Amino acid sequence: MWFNSPTEQLSIQVLSQVTTSDDNPFNYLLEPWATTVPFDYPSSLLRQLQPYLQPYSFIPDSKALELAQEILSATQGNTVDYIFALNQLIYQDCEYITRETGKPYPAGITWERKQGSCRDFTVLFMEVCRAVGIAARFVSGYQEGDRNQQSRDLHAWVEIYLPGAGWRGYDPTLGLVVSDRHIPLAASAIPSYTAPIEGLVTPVKSGEIVTSNMNSHISIN
């Protein structure tokens, strides 16, 4: 969106009606070669998944690698057990904090501090999956939560590619396997590409502080 003259306010309203139906997140069978990690991908599939296998910071995170090895040893490389153990470990061992702005923290920082926002936990989950060759991507959207709450913030979780099952969601913030209680808006190998709105603004008056606000209302039937 472009403006020919300065404007002091921009308001974007989006109205959507969504029907969800995937109430069983376990309705799949893995490919026989994907029951243990790391996977020995067919070359054609590996090329397609390559963006989702690269480290978030393009440099392998040592703490994420260490955590991956610990879980790998504890689960004996069983794919489903590995993913479930990782999801529960982040949920149980890390404290959730509200962080309305800023990029996700690197995985090692989140795990060392044992606290973070939903986007921090998602990046941590992604890195630990990618460390053992499981393709993972960042998802932003909304989660049902308490049906009676008046407002909801944008939420983040991870989707991993399980051969035979396709992309499957896990929510380490809530310790859940994603089903029909999550509404995805965008998914990407790179977290910054999942923002619902992006762009640059310049103050109309020099020295003026630019502020932004995002309000969401979800009605669940």
State the total count of DSSP E strands. 7
Overall geometric form: globular
Number of domains: 1
The sequence of SSEs as H and E is: HHHEHEHEEEEE
Q: Do you know the CATH architecture?
A: Roll
Look at the structure and give the CATH class.
Alpha Beta
Major sheet attributes: 5 strands, antiparallel
Question: What's the CATH topology label?
Answer: C8orf32 fold
Would you give an account of this structure?
With 221 residues, the chain is of the alpha+beta class. The chain has one domain: C8orf32 fold (Roll), CATH 3.10.620. The chain has 5 helices and 7 strands. It has helices at 43-49, 62-75, 79-93, 107-113, 118-130; strands at 95-96, 115-116, 136-143, 155-162, 166-171, 176-177, 182-188. The strands form 2 sheets. It has a 5-stranded antiparallel beta sheet, covered by helices on one side. It has a two-stranded parallel sheet with strand order 1-2. Helix 3 (79-93) packs antiparallel against helix 5 (118-130). It is globular, with a radius of gyration of 19 Å. The chain starts with 42 loop residues before the first helix and ends in a 33-residue tail after the last strand. It holds the Pfam family Transglut_core. This is Transglutaminase-like domain-containing protein. InterPro entries: Papain-like_cys_pep_sf, Transglutaminase-like. Residues 110-174 form the Transglutaminase-like domain.
